[in-house]
Amino acid sequence: MHTDFFSWLEQHQGRQYELHQKHINSSFVKMLRTIGFDKGYVRGEGPYLWDKEGNQYLDLLTGWGVFALGRNHPKVRAILQQLIGRDMPNLVRMDCSLLSGLAAEKLVSHAPEGLSRVFFTNSGTETVETAIKFARCMTGRQGIVYCDHAFHGLTTGSLSINGADFFRERFGELMPGNQKVVFNDLESLEQTLSRKEAAAFIVEPVQGKSCEVVKDGYLAEAQRLCRKYGTLLVVDEVQCGLGRTGKWFCFQHWPEVEPDIICCAKALSGGYVPVGAVITRPKIMDCVFNSMERCVVHSNTFGQNDMAMAAALASLHVIEEDKLVENAAEMGQYAMTRLREIGSSCPFVSEVRGKGLMFGIDFARPKSSLKLKMAWDMLHKMNFGVFGQMIIIPLLQKHRILTQVAGFHTEVIKFLPPMTVCKEDMDWFLSAMADVLEDTQRIPGAAWNTVAGLAKRAMTATVAG
Known about the structure:
alpha/beta, Aspartate Aminotransferase, domain 2, Aspartate Aminotransferase, domain 1, 15 strands, 14% strand
């Protein structure tokens, strides 16, 4: 390989879709081309992306929440550049890393006082796998209670507590002994916990696949029930944690809540190096690592590596120093208030919900207007959930705003702006949403033509595939 790496890389520019088609995931390439998302981005900075033609886009997908600090944050980059220029004694293993100790100290400073131990991982799903093992070890029980519509990752243990059958299909028998309960339903939860078989109850304070938020009082009562029946309370803050919802951790919107285990990741990386963290109580950590012989009974090869720990430390300092938690609270409230106002005039809008800068807009069959009802029904005969494409495609093609449908067979569009987002960017988004929502009410019109074109392209792609 040439030492001038970027000159070499430039020679291959434009080959990404061909290479992915041939060597990585051809179905993903087909999907991108079908909906017109094959833009070929060449640069990213803050909340923006640029394609090869120089067009600027507002990124409200942020790599599924990884770029909570925006892309290529200069402060995080500067720290990593300094680190990579030093000959660090990385991953010695038979030693203790200063960087990971400092990262743990900084992280727990924002958690409840009783949660003072940290286990570092390489991803969000690995934090959930760790939480499962820790809870089983601590309680001596096997089962995990989880919620419908939950999403906790796609590795085997995490997949076993996924609320959607779509992700579980065709992968065979998963981890046994788990129980699904209705989200926000305390009666369902108590009925399950009262069997005293559950090691843990795991819950997202804001569900990643629906943007449903726990009701006021739900987490506190769930905590009481968990303690009553000897079950650990695990909050999955992989996506909603570290400032995104306007608090350092989303559960802190309800001050009386103090979980036994917190899972976090995504934003901790600064968008540079994969890293996750499990924050827990000393008695839980000491139960797992209960002797010198068992001091590495749970571990990972790349956990606590210097680059990940430096990225985590830098990210935590940036969130503090740049007051990003406060900005997320302010911008989130502004965006959802205005979005509800805009949505009130669109018969397809069912609800705007979320917390801080993790919010979504849900669509449903109109209650009035026979013409719109018929259009909705016709569309859903073709493909349930395709209405969302009528929103995200013109947002990208006409307004250069990147976002996505929240999940398979859902009518929810989810938005994850970076926590660095400003009012001007939010106004760009809100103006675009007003235009797109207005278009959906014109039949025939641009929005419905978009979906018709999508259906034709999908059929062509299916036949060609």
